[in-house]
Amino acid sequence: MSNTAHTDPKLAQKQAVAKSALAYIEDGMILGVGTGSTVNCLIELLPQVRLKGAVASSQVTEDKLRALGIEIFDLNAVGELDLYIDGADEIDAHGNMIKGGGGALTREKIVAVASKRFVCMVDDSKTVAKLGKFPVAVEVLPQARSYVARELVKLGGEPVYREGFVTDYGNVILDTYDLDITDPAELESTLNNIVGVVCNGIFASQSAHIMLKAGDDGVSTVK
Ligand code: 5RP
């Protein structure tokens, strides 16, 4: 067995973009914190800032924040958040995103919609002219899985059941390839209207307000 550790080729960019996101965090804030490997780089830096606490977008993120001694708040108890910081699987020039590669899309969308500003941190592999190479995660109530899959096929998609994965809410995910995402907001709404769908990974109604994009030459800001 090889003992060579797997290294993420984008790790340096993820660390750089996470560092630049710290500038958006204000003293005493309750911060909305996303999920994923880019966010993990941010979480490692959070002891450098003075937060009142955080609202977590997944159980994994919540556990990591608690391990650092950061207080976790229930979203219902705190009202609107000033800031949500998260990553994305794809993002276009308008801030529309595909998220959900880590399966936390529903809780991420809830925290995003309850926040005034969404700062999205990406490395240079995530920016696209048109969304859709990355599959759209569709979170589905377990009993509706086959029905929703047939509806996704009617829309031109190719749904793949994410085997062995259960969301924080006890649901399943259909990773859907080949959808035509010419109009992200329209498709987001169409997918939400399928009975049995809990949420989908197109974030157009909750697009990012600010994109921080890391490249080999540093981090650029797109507003
Ligand atoms: C998890 C997400 C993540 O934000 C997205 O998958 C990006 O993750 P990473 O930073 O690991 O590339 O939506 O549900």
What does this entry show, briefly?
The chain has 223 residues and is of the alpha/beta class.
Report on this model:
The protein starts with 10 loop residues before the first helix and ends with a strand. The chain is α/β, with parallel strands linked by helices and 223 residues long. It has helices at residues 11-21, 37-45, 59-67, 75-78, 105-113, 145-154, 184-192, and strands at 29-33, 51-56, 81-86, 90-91, 97-98, 115-123, 136-140, 158-161, 172-177, 197-200, 202-203, 210-215, 218-222. The strands form three sheets. It has a six-stranded mixed β-sheet, with helices on both faces. The chain folds into two domains: 10-127 and 206-220, Rossmann fold; 136-201, ACT domain (Alpha-Beta Plaits), CATH 3.30.70.260. It is globular, with a radius of gyration of 17 Å. Helix content is 27%, strand content 28%. Residues 34-38, 86-89, 99-105, 108 line the site of ribulose-5-phosphate. Its EC number is 5.3.1.6.
What percentage of the residues does DSSP assign to strands (E)?
Answer: 25-35%
Shape, per Cα inertia axes = globular
Main CATH class of the largest domain: Alpha Beta
Helix content: 25-40%
Number of domains: 2
